[in-house]
Specification:
homodimer, 2 domains, 8 helices, 14 strands
Chain lengths: 353, 353
Amino acid sequence: MPDSNDAPIRRACPIPISDYPDVTLAHGGGGRLMRQLIEQMLVPSFDNPHLGRTHDGAVIAPEGERIAFTTDSFVVHPLQFPGGDVGKLSVYGTVNDLAMCGARPRYLSLGLIAEEGLAMETLWRIVESIRVAAKETGVEIVTGDTKVVDRGKGDGLYVNTSGVGFLPAGLEIGPARIEPGDVVIASGDLGRHGMGIMAVREGLEFETTIESDCAPLAAPIQDLLANGIPIHCLRDLTRGGLASATVELAQSAGRSIQLEERAIAVDRRVHAACELLGLDPLYVANEGRFVAIVPADSAERAVDVLRRHDVSADAAPIGTVLDDDRGLVTMRTEIGASRVVDLLSGEQLPRIC
Amino acid sequence: MPDSNDAPIRRACPIPISDYPDVTLAHGGGGRLMRQLIEQMLVPSFDNPHLGRTHDGAVIAPEGERIAFTTDSFVVHPLQFPGGDVGKLSVYGTVNDLAMCGARPRYLSLGLIAEEGLAMETLWRIVESIRVAAKETGVEIVTGDTKVVDRGKGDGLYVNTSGVGFLPAGLEIGPARIEPGDVVIASGDLGRHGMGIMAVREGLEFETTIESDCAPLAAPIQDLLANGIPIHCLRDLTRGGLASATVELAQSAGRSIQLEERAIAVDRRVHAACELLGLDPLYVANEGRFVAIVPADSAERAVDVLRRHDVSADAAPIGTVLDDDRGLVTMRTEIGASRVVDLLSGEQLPRIC
């Protein structure tokens, strides 16, 4: 991957910081300052023929028989965290939602809601992060919108990205296809995004920093499809974590799922942070993890394919779909007991994404 | 138009107000309360086969050789204003951006960023307004996202909508097509959205309330196309008003535009409110007005077509494109003088959309 996020090319902020150290209401007002922001910072960062047309929207050609369309807003606090920031998250998040439909992600929109007083340098760092993440994942930012709200009516920056991707007509991936006997594969260990952020917020210190797992997931999924794995369902494990994702899938599918606790990987530091804060890693948000539900006879091959990718190098089967239409999720614990996994009322962690 | 916004069907809020009078952080947390909000309020409101799939995104079929894709966030204050609210605005705004590409609007995404403490009843009224506006304009809300930010980090509700529409391959509408001799047609009078909101904010009273002009614009534009009008360029007159829109078009096209002050309609109350507040109606935001730039020999026919639609019943030519590549906008005033129209630094009115 060229130009990776680990070593982004740092270019100087094109808006003169001496003139505008902070974002002002005028930067969202439709006048000269907004045009400066768009023409000097945003359009050159995401340079492509669509954006250059200074039009109300982008006009693009379909590249598949079906279009996947998705949206996500990002209100994560703090804006920058170990392993990522709101910019990277907002690209990967929507790319991943498209990937979960089985689509090749292609085009993103970018909606910024900045708070008056946001440091121009912070905005620039986030725009750079979006640029690098888009390049890395092969998507183009083709249309955008910038609003500024008054001081005290935001929290620095909220970002919305919507995404368009393409897929062939025959490809149906979704809860309706889940069958008894299917295997649930997790793409890696759990809870690093949520606990990485909570550790910063709560000032927890470990021997090494917990970094968010925030990563793009389209490549391993496209590889599963290229290898002919008949994927039944995909779901990324964001807000609410593995527990909420599997409960939702089980309910939508009307099929029970049994998870094996001992197969589920959780980093030692994540475990420790969860214990300190009284949290269950099963419910903690991830931003680079998913489950794939596949027929039993394809499971081993699917795991092999996933393990070829860094982002899913630790993929493993963690459960099975039962021949039972109650739509429950149960967990067989390490000591062999069984407990029901349910949705929490809210989430343990506000504003994690 | 069935089920118009003037008489929306008021249904009772499906979330028990006695249990949850206000939106809480848990409503955005990925757990049971968020599912209740999505499954009881949002999905039934926007009922369609895509949303029902409870998936990470919608999968749709292309309905044209080209896809138009656009995004807009709405941070208007107050959330409800004479003639509309943030919900209606967020549907019309994105539908109008698609319309300005010459596309038939078809699908919207809906991203809600609610502030903890927002009255559930207010959220419900806005969701109802979105439902009615979507029905009226023939678009489907096919994918969505809901976030909640803590009290004091938002202002009730911010809404992002992104839109997908379709258009035929040959249709090119944009500043690059603007030619000397083209006629600039405005679809109606100016400034009612901005001044309707400012009148509320500033407590100005007139004999009758100034209502926002907020309206969907796809129908008159599709009608222009159906009547074979070779539209060169379209632009809706939102933030920054007519002045900013024409300056941007003139600069993008590298063609000067001359406007005729006497041809530009402004409601008497809007004039009065502008004078009281020291504003120029040329820069005030509209949400149901656009300019169409067409060849001179099609202008009369275009005006005739536009006048068949209520929303553009007062359409009139207001200027011409000059044979001059300076990209300036000038205004011939009622007394025959000429002045340059330029961008303001910011805008006169923050958070108007």
